[in-house]
Amino acid sequence: MYLDLFRLKELPFRLSPDPQFLYLSKHHARAKAYMESTIWFTDGFVVITGEIGAGKTTLIESFLRELDKDVVVAQINQTQISPLGFLQGLLVQFGFSPFKMNKAELLATINSFLVEQYAAGRKVVLVIDEAQNLSSRVLEEVRLLSGVETTKDKTLRIILAGQPELNDKLDSPEMVQLAQRIRLRFHLTPLSREDCSAYILHRLEIAGAGGRSIFSESALGLVHRYTGGVPRLINTLSDTSMMSAFAIDKDTVDEAEVKAAVDELQWVEYAARTNRMQRAEMVVPVLRHISPDTVLGRIYVATDGRTVAEKELKLGRLLVGRTSENDLQIDSKYVSRHHCQITVTLEGTVVEDLNSTNGLVCRGKRVRRQLLKDGDVIVIGQHTLSYVDERPNTPRGPTDTGSGDTNATGSHEMLSANPESGSGPH
After folding, report:
1. How far apart are CA 322 and CA 309, in angstroms?
2. Rounded to whole angstroms, what are the CA distances from 81 to 134, 141, 250, 254, 314?
């Protein structure tokens, strides 16, 4: 990699939500302060929203890392679940094994646990990430839990974090009772031009830049123009720009390297990209009001030409990797701990490499980020992930998927659609 060339101690632009690299813009600092307020106020809960890649998960990880020892935390990241699954998942976070309990037993156990923690002087915080995927029935369970109280105080502090659709859901007529319990609500906006530059310089400094100017001013401006100030996009473009400089043995990044990275990623300027998405929304209005539980596609995992797993794709993010905290686990030495993520939106499905060791191959070439078409095949090590788009009005037909090495070794490897998701890419 480029660490030696740039004289850095570690990679500055990983996509994993590492609190060490957190840059607190004015907006991010305010959102974090709202989270921290839940420790002191128990009447109601906090809602934090932001676009994909705005930094919500990193804020959550930073907030959780700084909590005192007297705070008990339950963190829910897999949100496409039933009410029963939600209650079971909550108790698992509290250290119980609840899978043989009926609903009444689950609720009684949760209530008793919350009251016991309050009596012992401990605070309990529930953090739900990707909360826009929660069904109305699960949100009703959240509302009921927020009402568990002693004679003086509520016993559970709640933080909901999610994409902007979460606000739409909370503002719907059937969620009036829940919305009335919201104490604070904040929306994370993209970084300004100045904050974007400060963000890049901050991450480089944490990685060991030692005050050296690695990105030129013109390069910093170009990064903002193509990313719109969205932190995850900034990470992707900055990392690819440094790779472009590394390829020509250059220890600084100028406009030329950023432009080369933009060409590799096949990006357009952020303003043009969002405008194009808005036009696409006009073409497919049938997708505007779909349920979060609607299946928009499927991933079929194969090894040695044999399908071994299938995963439904709904709105949200799907993590793919070697360990069990991923949504889709592929237990293979050729697969990284968190190998890639598949993001499903109303506009399309995108696969993105999470700085894995062996990378992704799609349509015959290695890719960092790829908008998938119906029939695309992604090669990960010795496995293939075949994508089927099930959106309404999606043209059907095979695409040029390339070849790639898909032969398996014949070893017995575990592949599973895991119901418990990790906190973010690593």
Report:
1. 14
2. 7, 12, 49, 46, 12
Task: Decide: 257 and 229 in contact? Cβ < 8 Å.
Answer: no
CA 217 to chain centre: 30
Which run of H or of E encompasses 144?
helix 136-146
pLDDT digits (tens, 9 = 90+) for 203-252: 999 999 999 999 999 999 999 999 999 999 999 999 999 999 999 999 99
Residue 74 pLDDT: 95
pTM: 0.63
47 within 8 A of 160, measured Cβ to Cβ = yes
Statement: residue 283 has pLDDT above 80: no
Residue 407 has pLDDT above 50, yes or no: no
* Encoded tokens for 370: 């790829």
End-to-end CA distance of the chain: 17
Instruction: Count CB neighbours of 70 within 10 A.
Output: 11
- Contact of 49 with 161, CB cutoff 8 Å: yes
Single-letter amino acid code for the residue at 278: Q
Whole-number Å distance between alpha carbons of 249 and 14: 21
Report the percent of the chain where pLDDT is more than 70. 87
pLDDT of residue 274: 56
Burial code (b: 16+ CB inside 10 Å, e: under 16) for 317-337 equals bbbbbbbebbbbbbebebbbb
Rounded to whole angstroms, how far apart are CA atoms 27 and 280?
Answer: 30
